[in-house]
Amino acid sequence: MTSTHAIAVARFENCLIQLSAAQSRLSALSDLFPQHPPMFTPQDDSDHARLAKLANRIRHFHEDITTAASKREPGPFPLAPIWLTNTSIKCRKNTVFHELTYQELAALLIDAINTAKTMAESPLPTSQAPA
Amino acid sequence: MATESRSISIGGDMGRWSDYALDTFFAPHLSELTAFSAPDVPVMDDYILSFILNRSINAPDDTRVKASMILIASFIRHVGPAIIEYREACLATLVTSRGFRAEP
Questions:
Q1: Stronger pLDDT, A94 or B76, i.e. the higher one
Q2: d(CA A128, CA B35)
Q3: B41 touches chain A (CB under 8 A)
Q4: What is the Cα–Cα distance from A20 to A81, expressed in whole angstroms?
């Protein structure tokens, strides 16, 4: 039997991966059209940047384990790439913790809906930009 | 004498696990997941169809336009599933947060 908790974590992992992929497409648009500034930089602590950090931990969790195992004194191994609390999703990279609250995740999703609507119904970027 | 290996099969809910076992063997701080709440997010309309009908047909033959159309379509295709996963995740987490503290 698969526990409900495992399903919950897997669903949130899928959500974060999908939304991170969507975010990366918008970042690529900024590369194509430099007049549109990037949504975030990896160094900042915005909700976009923390979403990317959570998604990266999911993608690279196997590397976290092998890296920890290769150390002379590995210490406690990370148990999972992300975990759920009452108010947020958390992850850890080395000794640094990152957190995205459910409020922030919901806001990112609603922003994404509005962006999708705008992009589906508005002129393409080149027609907005000067020649 | 041959060594016989044995496995243990456990079913049912997880209400009997100690906080230490939950946090050590299942997930960090799992025992603290007791009062989950998250905002609702509505399912997204089918904007990919709007995008194709409004933008893809008769688009100018321009490399950057073609690239942007692929990126925008991909963006929209990822947002829809992200929302569906979020909604399902919230339901499962709500059940989980109630179930861990349920009396056996």
A1: B76
A2: 47
A3: yes
A4: 15
For A32-48, the DSSP string reads: H-TTS--S--TTS-SHH
Rounded Cα gap, residues B80 and B68, in angstroms: 19
Which residues make Cβ contacts (< 8 Å) with residue A99, sequence separation at least 6?
Answer: A50, A88, A89, A90
Q: How far is B104 from chain A (nearest CA, A)?
A: 16
Nearest CA in chain A to B43: A113
Q: Cβ contacts of residue A126 below 8 Å, gap of 6+?
A: A33, B60, B62, B64, B65, B68
pLDDT digit string (tens) for A6-65?
A: 999 999 999 999 999 999 999 898 888 877 777 667 678 899 999 999 999 999 999 888
Measured in angstroms, the CA of B4 and the nearest CA of chain A are apart by: 25
Chain B residues in contact with A93 (beta carbon < 8 A): none
Asked whether residue B6 carries a pLDDT value surpassing 70, the answer given is: no
What angle, rounded to 10 degrees, do the helices at A4-32 and B63-99 form? 160
Asked casually if ipTM beats, i.e. exceeds, 0.85, the reply is yes
Q: Are B41 and A25 a contacting pair at CB < 8 A? A: no
Nearest to B78 among A21, A106, A125 (CB): A21
Task: Give domain limits for chain A.
Answer: 4-128
Kindly state whether A117 is in contact with chain B, defined as any CB-CB distance less than 8 angstroms.
yes
Estimate to the nearest angstrom the gap between the alpha carbon of B42 and the chain centroid: 15
